[in-house]
Batch of 3 targets.
Target 1
Amino acid sequence: MEEMNLNENKNNGNMADETIEITNATATKKAQKKEASRAERASQLRLTKTFNTINNSVNKAECQEDTSKNSQNNVFDRAQAKSHYMEQVTEGHTEKYISNHASELERNAERLTDAAEGSFKADQKMNAFLNGRKLNELEFMNEIKLYLINYSAKWHFEHVNEKTGEPKRMHFTTIADILKKVLHIAIVKMTAESTRDESKLMYWNPETGLYEESEATLNALARICEECITTGEQHQVIGALKDTVELKTVNDWKDVVTCGNGYFRRGELYDYSHDVVFVSKLATDYNADATECPTINGWNFDNWIENEVCHGDAGKINAFWQIIIRVVRYREQNDVMFWLYSEQGGKGKSTFLDLLINLVGARYTGSLTVKQFAEPFKLASAYNKSLIIGDDNPVNALMGDVEAFKSAVTGGLVNINPKNQKPFSARVQAAIIQASNGFPKFNAYDDGVARRFIPLEFNPTYAKPDKRVQTEYIKDHRVLEYILHEALRLDKNDNFKSLPEVVAAKKEIEENSSPVASFAAECLPEIHSRVVPTEFMFACFQRYLEEENRPKTMTRRTFNQKLNSLIKQGKVKGWESIRNSRLTDWNYDQDRVLLERGNGHYEYNDHEQSGSSKQAKCFIRE
């Protein structure tokens, strides 16, 4: 019995010792696990610090310094990274869970390792790509796109689920912020008077040197940042930019010529900069050495203009050079537009207009006829242009509302209403050139139109232009650079306004446009009496409208005012302004022939007053 008790006590002692050993082992295991957890956290912190140092640097100098400290030979340690992420994905799970989900955890750790390696490599590509430049110093849009591709990859590698490695989506505010880092974006006022609401969201294009408006481009860059971006999120990016970028105003220097390779001012050529806001320019580069007119296969521009187009007429040669000067110096205050006309087509007007388009560039040329200036949607095509060409004006078509056209010619404010956008006011700085076969006809040819309108006949000596001139010679950069150099060298003048052919053409156009002027030119010479009552004159005018098949919409009062105005301006000679006079000197029998023209007969009820002493308002011959 005692022996059994001894054995039992011994066994109990052994069990106690085993219990103590188990307890000690458990405690040791917990301590080891705790220490391992501490070591894991320390390792995680060190690794996180390493990756943050590598991945969060945008400036190349900073990135090179940090990577040299934290990454040996700029090589990604994949084994170390995967070990770290295996600890990360298994943390907090039991051994049984880890054993049952080994493949899934392995896959998640692999994803996280891939993301870390991708971020590391993308960062290296970005640093190599920048090559010491700042983000906003990239010189080409393709460079900006390539940088964003790498930045997007780096961002998506960094922003993943910490357990599964699944990538997250970039928020629209993050996209807006990165776009502001790689581009100079601003709200640009077209005039000093414009409000922010009337202004445009624009970005500075380093390739052109201009601020350009293109939501399509910004949307495309946003999609590079976040491939899965929705249309609504793109609108949110644009909205975030509009709310946060600075406000700038288009440069208003009048003595500047914006050339293809820089802006020319006071004899010097300057590089374009985001600090100086321009929205249009010429396509032709300024070349200080382009002082001689080149000859191509025997063709020479100076000879073409001087001898073939202008027939050696010095005044007309000056007029055509003044057209070119005004196209080149379109930023100066223009006060006229030129209208090239000929009796028939095929004379080469289009060749000269194509020369101007090549000089300016198709991108900065708008196509707009006089009638289209009255259409707000069409007028939007003149916005931000250097040149406006109207080469398809119909012959004898009546030009209606010309108020917007007159304002555009002289740089006044016009209302622009782009489709699907908010209307705004702006000044049209472009030079305006129009062309047609035959004379144009204006519904209201007043002093405002006459002052702005310079008709020039384009009637060269050649029967048919050489096609090579239009297809080859006027596109040659040597010819264009010479023309630009000459346009900057020559003086600007208004001598063309007094050319006899300009004066004669304007008179004919006025008569063709104004039925009153046309009536005065054709019918007043047939009147014999010295005194003619206004009522009789208006009756003659109505008979004239019938003959010309023109609408009789003008009132007698308006007719009297227009004819009186023509007399005062000296455009109708030999007559005095309206005043009261006796009808003694009116011979109705002789003048009634004007009422009997045509097929009908217009009865003038007061003809019995002819020769009487009764007074009435009359037109009186001097």
Target 2
Amino acid sequence: MTVTTETPAAPKPVRPPRQSPPRRALALLRNAWRGLTSMRTALMLLFLLALAAIPGALLPQRSLNAQKVDQYIADRPKLGPWMDRLELFDVFSSFWFTAVYVLLFVSLVGCILPRVLDHYRALRTPPVKAPRNLSRLPHHFEGSDTATPDEVIERVRTGLRGWRTVVQPGNREGEVTLSAEKGYSRELGNLVFHLALVGLLAAIAIGKLFGYEGNVVVIANDGPGFCTTSPAVFDSFRAGNVNDGTGLTPMCVRVKNFKADYLPNGQAEMFTSDLQYQAGDDLNTGTWRDTTVQVNHPLRLAGDRIYLQGHGFAPTFTVTFPNGQTRTETIQWRPDDATTFLSSGVLRIDPPGGMYPTEAERRKHQVAIQGLFAPTALLHGSLLTSAYPAMKDPMVAVDIYRGETGLDTGRAQSLFSLDPEMIKQGRLTKEQRVNLKPGEGATLADGTKVTFDGAQEFVNLQVSHDPAQQWVLVSALTMMAGLLGSLLIKRRRIWLRVYPAAEPSEKRRTVVEMGGLARTDQAGWGGEFDRLRERLLTDNPGEK
């Protein structure tokens, strides 16, 4: 007899119903939002933000030194323009750095808010009921007490000040349990840290949007100073993204003197400058107030800070023209050596008006002085260098030119060098090359005399306005407090179960069981558990 069995056919897979396009788009957005607001994404964005800031530290930035950026691009004619298109010279205002910054901000906010709600619910949730078997916990104690169960529970509850406690009846007759938990501030410290981080990012962003920063060179020794009437008074000025440079805090500043302290090897130890300033009602009354600024010790005026950033030397030359008229100019030269302050620069002087019959003739008799300045001269033959950064024996080595300096061309001129095209075309001719000490001079072929009068010191002042600077400090301190709280506070739980002894006696009326558990692995919790037991359960004959 043959039995034939038929294998049932496999069920056909049931295809899930196709979602409509709006539902698919909504699901995609929901998944994208969940991914963006996860802690892993926030950490990745924070790392990416730190990585994106590296080019800003390694490459010259246009907001700090536009001339250095132009020189960097000129030295790399192929790579430089592409780097500029990628905004590598404006890193912190670039579109890609801003995108990472905004995504990090959104990710942190979306990640923290649900945790805040969860923590709020946890604070309202009573401690967990005592486990059935306390002996399985990492820390356990079993003993006895002469008091009644209610008295033991009340004594322990009174001793657990600062703990959240709940007393509940047990499963057996006369049994009472106590649940206690402490360390909720650990999660609170974690949340405070992340909320303060969001506040720090927001404060920095507000400062970049509404702040401004200007740098100006001021000649010391009661020079003319400057007033913040417009951004044009600054040598370089950077306004915030929503700040057009108007509405500057009105103030006037002039530099009385400058002093630099040097070590014997020429290394700078401290810069100090005495300033006079006017702000507020002083501008109407003409009152000047005295103050002293040093490196990292700025002058604070109406929310602005005036920093002393650097210094250098400004040689003074007097040009006496053939008709006896004189022109005296003092202008800063650029320090080329930060150790000895050997400086280079150029001075352009225009003849007095009416001295020559035509404008073309006047331009041919312009004078340009280009060369080196040494605060403490050291000569190697006729070659000049500097031996010390302080001005002990000043001297200049200059080339004196006569002709068209380019002042009337309308083109931008470098403050520290002449236009080589003017020299190449023969429109500017070198007359003499001389080394001069203060009081010495040189006479040109047409009778024009150039005299070196010495040098003044100049200081570089930075006026910085950041409306959110105080919030940056508050956020940073709050971050530190929250981080310390999350690291030092321990989350731990203890449970107590008491019930009448099976055979009561004078020394054993109540059985006491105690268990402890730390929510996180923390060194020292075992010792704390023993100290709690000794303090709370003092009236017991010992452990079992």
Target 3
Amino acid sequence: MKCVFLITVAIGLVCHVSASVWPHPHLAAQEREVSRYLNGIENAILAHRNTASEANWAYDSNITDDNLDAKNEVATENAAFFKQISEHLSRYDYENFRNQDLKRRVKKLVGLGYSALPEKKFTEMLDAINNMKENYAKIKVCEYRDRTRCELALEPELTEILANSRDPEELKYYWQQWYDAAGAPTREDFQKYVDLNSEAAKLNNYDSGAESWLSAYEDDTFEEQADAVMEEMRPFYEQLHGYVRYKLRKYYGERVVSEKGPIPMHLLGNMWAQGWGNIADITSPFGDRQLLDVTDEMVRQGYNPIQMFEMGDEFFQSLNMTKLPPTFWEKSILEKPDDGRDLICHASAWDFSKQGDVRIKQCTRVTMEQFFTVHHELGHIQYYLQYENLPSMYRGGANPGFHEAVGDVLSLSVSTPKHLEKIGLLKDFVLDEESKLNQFYRSALTKLSFLPFAYTLDKYRWGIFRGDIKPEEYNCKFWEMRSKYSGVEPPVVRSEEDLDAPAKYHVSADVEYLRYFVSYIIQFQFHRAACEKAGEYVKGDPEKTLNDCDIYQSTEAGNAIKAMLQVGASKPWPDAMEVLTGVRRMSADAMIEYFQPLYDWLVAENERLGVPVGWEASDNWSTAG
């Protein structure tokens, strides 16, 4: 995934910490006391959050030992601060409070997350995560054709090579170099992290870290909902997978791509095979016929990163949303610094718990994909700005997936030919039936291919946290699950000597990933509702389809989205979803509707070509050392 929503706060997930309850005879008196207490500590909470954000920003934008020490010191101080608050509030009988809002505010603060650990172990946890993140950020790889030159970083060099090279041996080389460097060296830290994650979960009265993470969705059935959505999308994914494998086999030959097995993932245009959009040029149904890519036009017109963010800001303003504050432009990092410092380039949006202080850190490049990423990141920023006047414990997404979905809703409009024409990046583009299918296909390579990847990343970690996946089978089970759900395999044999999951940033950085799976589903529900309000979509009208909707300049759509964002985390997520969509449940029906023309075409075309659908098991990993 392109970005990560960072919460740099030492508050954990919602839970009830057991403690003796003060013997107050009247709940009403307790409620008055707690209300006064929360009002009294509000400014202190915001100040501690701000200090943590500043320390994390300093480290992530300049990885030095001094900045790491400062970041850890702040985290330890904050852990103690929030632990005091939790212990104080846990003495009240808040579960029986009649004031539901007050009860919700308390429950948001009594959950301690990793701060529940004793101070020494909390520090060990921070060290383990920071070590994995630092290893990830500092990796440099030698060039394929000149092994004496070893300065290639993930961003931008390896990312661009995986996207653009069509030499399978070169791609295999860089894939292996990255996974070898990003995975196995973290084994000790990864195991320490797993052990302490489990200990913290139990201190917070969860069975494991899996239940702790899932509690953010406030629904005991949410894991089953995700399973059901994945099964709902699986037939579509299998049709897309079969067609892509067929086209890659034609391009690379049968010695590189098998007819019925998993797809070798180094051929899919992305280091983790999480999105396949970069291979649209060699797999599209109708070649490069009007294949939408405005990168060259952006370069020709002299676009730069600042302009890309200005245009994203203007999009939000056209919806009657909030203009970016001056401090955003003063304090953000929108291009990779050229001063040689090590930094985490992974695109991220930041909230500093201070009026108007929101920032983005992104090593932005002038490409169409990055243009869409800009809008995604600004979606996080807009969410921050819309809920910044709520109490501190409500300043977050309704569930973790909401934050990720908001920016992508904008990207669904920005990526339409009609919008790119409006802003002058597309000229003389003829959208006939073949071109439309190419556009649906390219979008599916990004959106649909991502679902099993996102689903697997947390399904795998839940298995580890619950003890179902043992340390001696970490790597085997990882690739077994990647094959089962995504139908991909590593280009070289992997064994338990390797540890490949931390080669993805979110695993090394301890970032829950179900949020991205959820966001890719609910963004289409949000998109459909916004398009209806903009008058851009009418169900059954071939002139106003979900996949050709652009909500740009629609204040009606913008006001509806804004109303949902302003709820923040003050209500359970179904309440927030209902504000915009009128429904209260995650469903894949809007996504399926969006891509229905492509699905119908793929089924018919795969049948016509005799393309095998589904995949056989791979043998590219083993339990051997």
